[in-house]
Design a protein that fits this description.
Number of strands: 10
Structural class: alpha+beta
Radius of gyration: 20 Å
Order of helices and strands: HEHEEEEEEEHHHHEE
CATH topology of the largest domain: N-terminal domain of MutM-like DNA repair proteins
Number of domains: 2
CATH class of the largest domain: Alpha Beta
Largest sheet: 4 strands, antiparallel
Length: 284
């Protein structure tokens, strides 16, 4: 699932194609991607006709498209959701679900989703921050992100460190990939009990998470397959810079020990057994 860097790449790509443009038509080609819009596809379409987009915004892994009316289109990419920018008349993608066309007659914006776990919904009054995601914590790239507040929340969780990092109500944007990479950089085991960590250690892991996501952002994020691409259909290249995630059996870049893959929350965690040994106090 796309994490903060991948969603931010998409947001930046949409800025120049959406901001200031007036919607002429919206075409919903499959109802599932607008399933969270309780009034149904026809209402979704009618609400957007004639609306003007403001600059796309993001918090953590959530992207929304503000409207100058004060409302917004809330989006979530899910496992395979993509926004694509295409000239009018370009062949449809195989999994095209929603199409936006504009009064200026220029290129259209398309929502493509193979697995259809993502989606779009209309958020009344959501231009500044949709109420549906108001519970999501600020992320490390937010100018108002408070590392001391995030540190306190993580210490209070009394859970494993990686579980706390993935809790989007404590700090948002970090997923499985960047949690593993940040933990490796900080030399901490993913099951370290949060209450045993000193505030300085938690601040350190938050700084490492920010650093690794910033590096990923500079190269377009992490793409393991064609399910994540930017608005022009291009893949990100941070996969080449991963130290532990997906590197089972490869030598640790620090000490050469083979990287281990271990079960974690119906997923996997990757770590170096020497750099990140099992601590005395764990919460799996």
């Amino acid at each position: 699932m796309p994490e903060l860097p991948e969603v931010e790449v998409v947001r930046r790509g949409l800025v120049g194609f959406l901001t200031g443009r007036t919607v002429e038509t919206v075409e919903v080609l499959h109802p599932r991607p607008v399933r969270r819009h309780a009034a149904g596809p026809e209402d979704f379409v009618s609400r957007l006709k004639g609306q003007v987009f403001a600059e796309p915004a993001r918090r953590g892994k959530y992207l929304w498209l503000p409207l100058t009316s004060g409302d917004a289109v809330l989006t979530h990419l899910g496992m395979s959701g993509q926004f694509r920018v295409q000239p009018v008349g370009a062949p449809d993608e195989p999994h095209l679900r929603v199409r936006f066309r504009f009064a200026d007659g220029g290129g259209e914006v398309r929502f493509v989703d193979q697995r259809m776990f993502g989606g779009l919904s209309y958020s009344e009054g959501g231009a500044e921050l949709p109420a549906e995601i108001a519970h999501i914590a600020r992320d490390p790239f937010d100018p108002l992100f408070d590392p001391e507040l995030a540190t306190a929340k993580i210490r209070r969780r009394r859970t494993g460190l990686k579980r706390a990092l993935l809790d989007q109500t404590a700090i948002s944007g970090i997923g499985n990939i960047y949690a593993d990479e940040a933990l490796w950089r900080a030399k901490l085991h993913y099951a370290r009990a949060t209450e045993t960590l000193k505030p300085l250690q938690i601040r350190g892991i938050l700084e490492q998470a920010h650093a690794v996501m910033a590096e990923a952002l500079t190269v377009g994020g992490t793409s393991f397959d064609a399910l994540y691409v930017n608005v022009n259909g291009e893949s990100g290249y941070f996969e080449r810079g991963l130290n532990v995630y997906g590197q089972e059996g490869s030598p640790c870049p620090r000490d050469g020990r083979p990287i281990r893959r271990e079960p974690f929350m119906n997923r996997s965690s990757y770590r170096c057994p020497k750099c990140q040994p099992v601590p005395r106090h764990v919460r799996w």
